Automatic annotation (TrEMBL):
Membrane topology annotation: Multi-pass membrane protein
Protein name as it appears in the record: Sugar porter (SP) family MFS transporter
Alphabetical keyword list: Membrane, Sugar transport, Symport, Transmembrane, Transmembrane helix, Transport
Residue span, Major facilitator superfamily (MFS) profile domain: 29-370
Gene3D superfamilies in the cross-refs: MFS general substrate transporter like domains (1.20.1250.20)
Stored InterPro entries: MFS_dom, MFS_STP/MST-like_plant, MFS_sugar_transport-like, MFS_trans_sf, STP/PLT_plant, Sugar/inositol_transpt, Sugar_transporter_CS
Amino acid sequence: MAGGVFAVDSTPDAAVNIVGKLTLSIIITCIVAASSGLLFGYDIGISGGVTTMVPFLQKFFPDILRKAAGAEVNMYCVYDSQTLTLFTSSLYLAGLVSSLAASKVTAWYGRRNVIIIGGALFIAGGAINGGSENIPMLILGRVFLGFGVGFTNQAAPLYLSEIAPPKWRGAFSTGFQFFLGVGVVTAGCINYGTAEHTWGWRLSLGLAVVPAIVMTIGSFLISDTPNSLVERGKLEQAKKALRKIRGSSVDIEPELEELIKSIELAKSVNQEPFKTILKREYRPHLVMAFAIPFFQQLTGINIVAFYSPNLFHSVGLGRDGALISAIVLGSVSLVSNVISAGIVDRFGRRFLFITGGIMMFVCLVSEITT
């Protein structure tokens, strides 16, 4: 992929010094791109808390309240509603569908433009959810949000990896995950503050529009990555983008030439990328590319994050206690993101994989044995 063009071992010494410089423009553009993670995190965290709010359940899912009122009903069975499941899972379903097309769209139209498209979808989804009067509106809003997730999750991490200097690429790439954690914690705090109000669920769902608007406007003000511009044959724009992020006093010609050569080489080698990746020598890379995210999802961490207020409520905590516990869970995750961002470029990705895997294994075993 084009994200590997700025690798240190393939860049001339002069270009390495240029690319290693951290400028204000790089920081601003990366914050704008990474903020799409905030929207994803917010949408993950907000729905679980909203589905514990009495006014929300009274309007859309009164059967759940009737089950909760029955002393003979186990709390684990209270949320046994296919419609409620559709409301929460429709975001992921739409994200899955849109992600299938997002890769091609990102290559054709550029990383920045796809982030803008995702921002517009987030705005539409948040507005529809905040103004919902029936279940179809709720689900439609979640579908729009899911489409936004599918597009921005494809474009934003790629944008970050391509725009960041090699020395800081690991830290900048974790920016998406950091903002995701910020979104989860922010959603938990807003849910806690609005839970007792009849209009609280509308505010919680509708506030997703605010960061979506900020991100969309910010995306118009930043340039696309030089990689993307060169890939699409826009060399003059690529030159302007490089000059903007490296600084006007820096000679960007060596880096631009190296970038053009690298992309031309990648295109000549990968005429049939899917056939290439299936070759024997690339099979380990293919297996790990699927295995790492696949088994990460199988740990169930996203389900815990998504349904944490419901889970805490089911094990006996009150509604306020469940919402506070969700905030604590999100805060721990956020602190972990900050720590990993600070050490990833020093110790490497493999170290974090091993450390995280060991910690997850120990925690899961301790839960089973207690």
